[in-house]
Design goal:
alpha+beta; two-stranded antiparallel sheet; 4 helices
């Protein structure tokens, strides 16, 4: 997780939505679905939403906003396999979105 010091930039290197919503392949990808993990994911998501609400930026037309949202949803994810440090044979699969 990163947080900007001067500018309000925030980012995560993991998918906070997966903690709450995805129960598939839990054992294979080692996703933590504990109560503490879900509370953490909700706090991070709420931070992003609250910071976005501070912005005065807005779209002039709803159609422009929908077009940009569709770009995000249709953006191809780069699938990456990262080796686990303790094991040379096991990897963790993840997705990387570049904007």
């Amino acid at each position: 997780m990163i947080e900007g010091i001067i500018y309000p930039w925030f980012g995560v290197a993991y998918r906070i939505d997966r903690i709450q919503n995805s129960m598939e392949n839990t054992k294979r990808d080692h996703t933590d679905h504990s109560r503490e993990a879900i509370i953490h994911a909700q706090k991070v998501a709420n931070l992003f939403v609250n910071e976005a609400r501070l912005s005065d930026n807005e779209f002039a037309f709803v159609g422009d906003e929908v077009k940009e949202i569709n770009k995000l949803q249709n953006n191809d994810a780069h699938r990456v396999e990262v080796p686990i440090v303790q094991s040379k044979k096991q990897t963790i699969r993840t997705e990387l979105y570049l904007f």
